[in-house]
Amino acid sequence: MSQLDFDTHNAFNLDEIYSVSGFLSLCHSTIENNIPT
């Protein structure tokens, strides 16, 4: 694997991780907002 492929692969993985983290944060916020206090 070339260095460029390696860098691109890492960037893609980071994008996936951030997307999942953002999605979970959004779900968590929605759940908290829907819980009656």
Core attributes:
37 residues, mainly alpha, 1 helix
Short description:
It contains 1 helix and no strands. It is mainly alpha-helical.
Look at the helices and sheets and give the structural class: mainly alpha
Helix content: over 70%
Order of secondary-structure elements: H
- Shape descriptor: rod-shaped
Radius of gyration in whole Å, from Cα? 16 Å
For the sheet with most strands, the description reads: none
Number of helices: 1
Low-confidence stretches: none
Mean pLDDT: 78
Instruction: Provide the number of structural domains.
Output: 1
Strand content: under 5%
Distance between the termini: 54 Å
| Count of strand segments | 0
Layout: helices, strands, pairs:
Elements: H1 3-34
General description of the model:
The chain has 1 helix and no strands. It is mainly alpha-helical and 37 residues long. The protein has one domain. The longest helix has 32 residues. The mean pLDDT is 78.
